[in-house]
Design brief:
There is one protein chain. It is built from 5 helices and 7 strands. It has a single domain, classed as 3-Layer(aba) Sandwich (Rossmann fold). The relative contact order is 0.19. Helix 1 packs parallel to helix 5. The protein is an alpha/beta fold. The longest helix is centred in the C-terminal third of the chain and has 19 residues. Bound molecules: magnesium ion (MG) and zinc ion. Magnesium ion (MG) binds next to loops.
Length: 173
């Protein structure tokens, strides 16, 4: 159990939020995402996306479309995402994987042997970061001004994570 990871939400965190993104042309990275994630990856974090895609259960798109979407996102990011975990269910299915439930997180931690206490969670909604549990994971929300994404948000996130990691490693707190 040695790996550490940044768990990422997808819509509104890595790419622009769309109302049930269902066209490839709508996939657009948020500003600063690639640079930030590249930096975090090179400092030893796995990058793992955890995403609710109830559009599958609602019939707006299928699993194959979501898979293709993730391949495209990863290509845009230079292939640095290690894995994608998807909840395809609708809210009324009461599954154990739809965030804020932590099924996706548990599955990811198991597959990649992740030490959650030295991992982070980044999302744009409280339901993303609510899945952190007793393991003492750290979490950060993407900055928003109303419904608008703050352009320096990813810079701020990287700074916070790096500063905290440095303190943990060298100052021991
Ligand atoms: Mg989101
Ligand atoms: Zn689910």
């Amino acid at each position: 159990m040695r790996n550490r990871a940044i768990f990422l939400d997808r819509d509104g965190t890595i790419i622009y939020e769309r109302n049930y993104l269902s066209r490839i042309a709508e996939i657009k990275l948020l500003p600063g995402t690639k640079k930030a994630l590249t930096l975090l990856k090179s400092s030893g974090f796995l990058l793992i996306v955890l995403t609710n895609q109830s559009g599958i259960a609602r019939g707006f798109f299928d699993k194959k479309f979501v898979k293709t979407t993730h391949q495209i996102i990863n290509r845009k990011l230079g292939g640095i995402i290690d894995d994608f975990f998807v909840c395809p269910h609708s809210p009324d299915a009461h599954c154990s994987c739809r965030k804020p439930k932590n099924g996706l997180l548990r599955a990811a931690a198991k597959r990649w042997r992740i030490n959650l206490s030295s991992s982070w969670i980044v999302g744009d909604k409280l339901s993303d970061i609510m899945i952190r549990n007793k393991d003492g994971m750290s979490s950060i929300l993407i900055g928003k001004n109303g419904s608008h994404y703050c352009s320096d948000s990813w810079n701020r996130i990287v700074k916070t994570i790096m500063k905290t990691e440095y303190r943990r490693q060298y100052v021991g707190r």
